[in-house]
Design goal:
homodimer, Glutaconate Coenzyme A-transferase, 27 strands, hydrolase (chains A, B), acetate CoA-transferase activity (chains A, B)
Chain lengths: ~525, ~525
């Protein structure tokens, strides 16, 4: 059992800095860092899925802005692996401190900033983003300093080794990449956490033409190092943090998500039976949310043994999965436990840490590795259309939810790509006002070419090998809610008749009516209607 | 110089079969093969981009169908790497012999069959298709025989080695995969061609969990074998062919395509200057058509030396590129030369063959290798929208052109992804009736997350690091034709105002008007109009 360290004594941080020469970088008051920050800078943070993000420095900056009424006057271009916490980026957004924020978030204030035109945001495939950041594609428009560098990186760590190398905490994200490309680095050592030494496998990216194969063929292979090197001259300061990650409890399973999980487990059994999948399945990628949790629950209660996981985020449900002996090993870029989940981890440290590894998101989401390992991808989209095109990001075509995240990398490259969602969602006036299955998705992140299996609580549509019209029939039949089935069928049939006459019936549409579900929703508060 | 073999003597085929025991499989009349073919079978052909496809057997089958009025009674599910020739699959389509045809074609009769609902067709990323075919995803619905096998593969080869291994001709495509999974194989040895021994690098795919890294870090690395093994018991027959590939001359460069090429060459110079690209660029992927040819022409006249190519198809223009000493090495899955181009190759064989290699399309289009090599992708789409979503396949949303091909694999995974197209195309009544830049693409194969650079003869839009609204402004400004600029600007501005009011302005759209370009085209023969 790993001892959880005690709080509040000065010696805590020095015990985590094993390289004596770096002790001189320790500062006790983060306000001393404020002068280094200037309007318009390009800043990188550690953090992914709400863990291991910097807290002390961003909060000190937010306090500074609030105290001195610097709202909209001290703004940053902020680059993080994925989401962090409401007390940091959420507060920055509320204080109008964010000019630009890539490539993923899940905070209500940030989301509001994006959708009101106040925060420039673009979502990008997480692994490609990590590479492109290093190539200088996100810093092209920098007005001051080196166009290929971030001005300051702020990272949370749990230890600095004798070599002066960094050991992150509960996530990796783009920490290795921002350590490579930042001009200056601030390190927050979180002494409320144990050292995560040994949990990570950190890889340096050598841009083309120097990129080498990732020599990884199993989820538990290690191809990197456990601590990431950093040029000591880059280190601006080291500060202590005892602030916890601001995580919440996992979304509970419900009836619909359990029905979805049941369809998926039955499908897996049939695939094994048909010889297309090994008995322990292929490595599983699982998203976040109630359906993802239900699927993991379903798998852990199912007849499968020695399951491996290759995913972005390890969540509370995986602890049960480990405990019942069915989960063999899990690889991810983030541990996103609830506070009680983290306690479970820390109290049984030795029991869990040998069964998992945290990697750069450039590795966890790498097309190369997802393809090679033959991953089974499971993702929850906003909606999908009858031909299988998928919207993962923009509600009603325009409003950003969280960003594409790893959905594209997993859906495109997995051996088996599955999307799952409830068949309807409620509006104010109609408990089934929004259909997940639509004639033409209002935003397309993943095309018909990327997904094999569509699941709702209604059923499972296996579209492998089908042409678009066959696909549409199966998706409507198996996935659409009974309320929307006749409406969708009529669209497909009428579109097919019209397009056949024109000799243009590969993927039949009526572009004058394709978005009627959405216009009806705006006008009448529901997607359902009587007449096309 | 490689001697082109003479025609018409029986000894030609025996000289190409180096394994004596296989000589007993040679048959002289392909009509003897007809009884092996039954309605509903799953058939694989060699061939890619119109070269190295089987001819004698498909033509004998077509003659048989025509002679015996078996149209629509002898139909096949046909799987090829990409396109073949009009005298084979085109004739099969015209004779209603194709039930299903995956994943790419470029023949007018096949296209007509697809768009009139007579041929089931689905396009798929070419490398993923090769894998999924082996996994049994395209043969799931087979009614007879092993659901994980093709019934018969028909391949063109240029030699059988002493070990009994196959040496293909001018393309590889999915030949290795169909040799792995076919129940029976017919081999057509084309003695009108030289043996292509030494030109190929053929890789066997081991499905997960046995897949290994592709140990390739340079375009000229070899990771496979020069001849592909085959179980001799699978060989139904070996027949001689002297029919040439039915290729045409390359599309000529024109004024618009030269303007596009100029923008791209200037951009490359600036990228090198900024230190984001080596002086010899990164390996180039180039499509087919007049713009692709103009770009290759522009590069070969440009200031770049020692260029490498990592692409699908090597075309006539590459011969000039080799000849002027600027092209160092080219890797592809197909040599698609015109008849005169093939003569140039055969007459200077030793000069060219050491500078190129042909690979499985699973390798040429592999995400792993495209990412690792840092490829520069250059593709011509049907259209793209103001936010950067791309239609590569379905005209007006419904009518299949050729299929997605490798466009998705190259655009998603390349270090630098470029699409290029003329800003307008003519309709009957308007020389600028169709705009390439539209408000919302009528079909989306590649999303905003996949492409860095958009080019028309009007200019080049570099959207790296931009958010959707910034991207739209640049794409409209740089790429749209002056006729369409004000129309598109008004759409963007009005949509932004409306969506800002709703707090939904990440990617502003008006879904009731998003497809007006297409409805206007149907009603008035042009996409242009005065009033939104």
């Amino acid at each position: 059992m790993h001892k959880v360290v005690e709080h509040g004594t000065k010696s805590l941080i020095t015990s985590r800095i094993k390289r004596p020469s770096l002790l001189s970088k320790v500062i006790t008051d983060p306000n001393h860092l404020i002068p280094y920050f200037q309007n318009g800078q390009y800043i990188g943070w550690s953090g992914f899925a709400g863990t291991n993000y910097p807290k002390v420095t961003p909060i000190a900056l937010a306090d500074h802005v609030e105290k001195n009424s610097l709202q909209s006057k001290l703004k940053f271009n902020l680059f993080v692996g994925a989401s962090t916490g409401p007390e940091t980026e959420g507060r920055w957004a509320a204080l109008d401190m964010i000019e630009r924020r890539y490539p993923h978030q899940s905070d209500s204030s940030v989301r509001k900033g994006i959708n009101t035109g106040n925060i420039k945001f673009a979502d990008e495939h997480l692994s490609i983003y990590a590479n492109d950041l290093l190539y200088g594609y996100y810093t092209l428009k920098k007005e001051k300093g080196d166009k290929r560098k971030l001005d300051i990186a702020i990272i949370e760590a749990t230890e600095i080794t004798e070599e002066g190398y960094i050991i992150p905490g509960a996530s990796v994200g783009i920490t290795p990449e921002i350590l490579q490309m930042a001009d200056k680095v601030i390190i927050e050592i979180n002494t409320s956490l144990p050292s995560f030494k040994g949990v990570h496998d950190l890889v340096k990216h050598d841009p083309p033409p120097f990129t080498k194969p990732y020599q990884l063929t199993r989820v538990d292979d290690r191809i990197g190092v456990e601590a990431f090197p950093i040029d000591p001259e880059k280190i601006l300061a080291i500060v202590e943090s005892q602030l916890p990650d601001n995580t919440s409890d996992p979304a509970p399973e419900d009836e619909k998500s359990n029905a979805i999980a049941h369809h998926i487990v039955e499908f897996f059994k049939a695939e094994i039976e048909a010889g297309r999948m090994p008995k322990n399945l292929h490595p599983i990628q699982s998203g976040i949310g109630s359906i993802a949790n239900a699927v993991i629950g379903g798998l852990s209660r199912g007849p499968f043994e020695n399951i491996n996981v290759w995913t972005e985020v390890i969540q509370d449900t995986f602890l049960d999965f480990f405990d019942n002996g069915k989960l063999n090993f899990a690889s991810a870029t983030s541990l996103r436990f609830s506070p009680s989940g983290f306690n479970r981890l820390f109290n049984n440290w030795d029991n869990y840490v040998n069964k998992m590894v945290l990697r750069n998101q450039a590795i966890s989401n790498s097309a190369e590795l997802i393809r090679r390992l033959g991953v089974i991808a499971l993702n929850t989209p906003v909606e999908f259309d009858i031909y299988g095109h998928i919207n993962s990001t923009c509600v009603d075509g325009s409003k950003m939810l969280n960003g594409i995240g790893g959905s594209g990398e997993f859906l495109r490259n997995s051996k088996l790509s599955i999307v799952h969602a409830p068949s309807t969602r409620p509006t104010k006036s109609d408990p089934h006002g929004i259909s997940t299955v639509v004639p033409f998705a209002s935003h397309i992140d993943h095309s018909e070419h990327d997904v094999d299996i569509y699941v709702t609580e209604q059923g499972l549509a296996d579209v492998r090998g089908l042409d678009p019209i066959e696909r549409a029939k199966v998706i409507i039949e198996k996935c659409a809610h009974p309320i929307y089935k006749p409406i969708l069928k009529e669209y497909l049939e009428t579109s097919t008749q019209i397009c056949l006459k024109k000799g243009a019936a590969h993927e039949p549409h009526q572009l004058d009516k394709a978005f009627k579900f959405y216009t009806n929703l705006v006008e009448k508060g529901t997607m359902r209607f009587d007449k096309w």
